[in-house]
Amino acid sequence: MTSKQKLIEELNKIGAINIDDSKYDVLPFVDLKRVFTHPHVFGMIVEALLETISPFEFDKIGGIEYSGLPWASIIAYRLNKGLFYLRRSETERNALIGKISPYEKIILVDDVLTTGSFTLKAVDTIKSYNVSLIGVFVILDREEGGSEELKKRGVKTYSLLKLSQLRFYKD
Prior knowledge:
Order of helices and strands: HEEHEHEEEHEHEH
Keywords: Pyrimidine biosynthesis
CATH topology: Rossmann fold
InterPro entries: PRTase-like, PRTase_dom
Protein name: Phosphoribosyltransferase domain-containing protein
Organism: Candidatus Marsarchaeota G1 archaeon OSP_D
Pfam families: Pribosyltran
Radius of gyration: 16 Å
Number of helices: 6
Oligomer: single chain
Number of domains: 1
Mean pLDDT: 89
């Protein structure tokens, strides 16, 4: 069993993946907030993110409020990198919390990528600082066009899991 399959199995065991519940609008519904109450699964995701992110050379890591911030924080701590985050703010002026400087190499972390609408706003905010955006790293890509929209803007997306890998998973 691959580490990806093991992670999917563990997410399923803790009830984070819901394939056939009619109370959710989108199926499968993936509730990554459940991970925070299951340290072993949290650790699996942290290690997988570290494995994915570590090969890249970068100066700072940014988290997208709210769900991306815990992941960005632990990765920044483990890799001894600077941290900033982006608020879901209507005004670009108040969106960035922390400091980034021109020419820094930046990575951005979030939990789930869907259509990418807020991620695109975050990318625009970051790029306005004249930095080099290495990529957007997510735990789950719901494959609803977000990666494609980011690609159109020259931004690579790296995901631990894709929705298509979960669609037919049942224990």
